[in-house]
C-alpha cells in the first residue's frame, strides 16, 4: 500500500504510470484504475513514458469506469497473481459518489485484499493547498488532502513529490 502524493503538476501520475510500466517490464500484471482520465488520455501518457520502445503500454489494463471503488477493484483483481501492481487514480475521489462506501472503509478493504493476495497497490493522492513550499521543501503525511477521513497508517509507504524532488518514507 503505497501513497504517491504531491500538488498538481509535480509528477504523481507519471510516477504511478511508471510503476505500472516497470511491473509490465518485469512480466507482472499491471492495472490502472482511473476516475480522472479517459483510456485514450492514459494510453497517450503511457506511450510518452515508454517512448514506443517496448510496447509495454499495450500490456497494461486501463479501467475508467465511474463504478471504480474498492469492491470494483477487488472483483476485477480477484484471482490475480501475487505481485500484480494496481495504481488507483486517485485516492480522494474513491468515495465521491455518495452511493459508495466511506473512503476509510474502502482503503481498509483494499489493504486486507493486498495482504491476502500479494497485490501491490499505489494510490495517487493530492496534497492539501495549505502545503507551503516556503516552510518545507517537500510535503509529508500531514499534508495529505483528506476531505473524508482515512487512517493514513493503513498505507505502508508514502512517496512525496515537489519541484523535481522526491522522498520515500515509511508510514506505519
UniProtKB/TrEMBL annotation:
Domain of life where this protein originates: Bacteria
UniProt feature coiled coil, ranges: none
Protein name: KaiC-like domain-containing protein
Ranges for domain KaiC-like: 2-62
Transmembrane spans: none
Organism: Rhizobium meliloti (strain 1021) (Ensifer meliloti)
Amino acid at each position: 500500500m503505497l501513497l504517491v502524493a504531491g500538488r498538481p503538476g509535480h509528477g504523481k501520475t507519471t510516477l504511478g504510470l511508471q510503476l505500472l510500466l516497470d511491473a509490465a517490464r518485469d512480466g507482472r500484471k499491471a492495472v490502472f484504475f482511473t476516475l480522472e482520465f479517459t483510456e485514450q488520455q492514459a494510453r497517450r501518457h503511457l506511450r510518452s513514458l515508454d517512448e514506443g520502445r517496448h510496447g509495454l503500454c499495450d500490456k497494461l489494463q486501463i479501467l475508467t469506469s465511474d463504478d471504480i471503488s474498492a469492491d470494483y477493484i477487488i472483483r476485477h483483481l480477484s484471482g490475480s497473481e501475487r505481485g500484480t501492481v494496481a495504481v488507483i487514480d486517485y485516492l480522494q475521489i474513491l468515495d465521491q459518489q455518495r452511493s459508495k462506501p466511506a473512503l476509510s472503509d474502502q482503503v481498509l478493504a483494499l489493504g486486507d485484499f493486498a495482504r491476502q493476495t500479494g497485490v501491490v497497490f499505489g494510490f495517487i493522492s493530492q496534497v492539501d493547498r495549505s502545503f507551503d513550499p516556503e516552510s518545507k521543501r517537500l510535503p509529508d503525511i500531514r499534508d495529505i488532502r483528506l476531505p473524508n477521513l482515512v487512517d493514513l497508517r493503513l498505507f505502508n509507504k508514502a512517496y512525496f513529490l515537489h519541484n523535481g524532488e522526491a522522498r520515500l518514507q515509511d508510514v506505519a
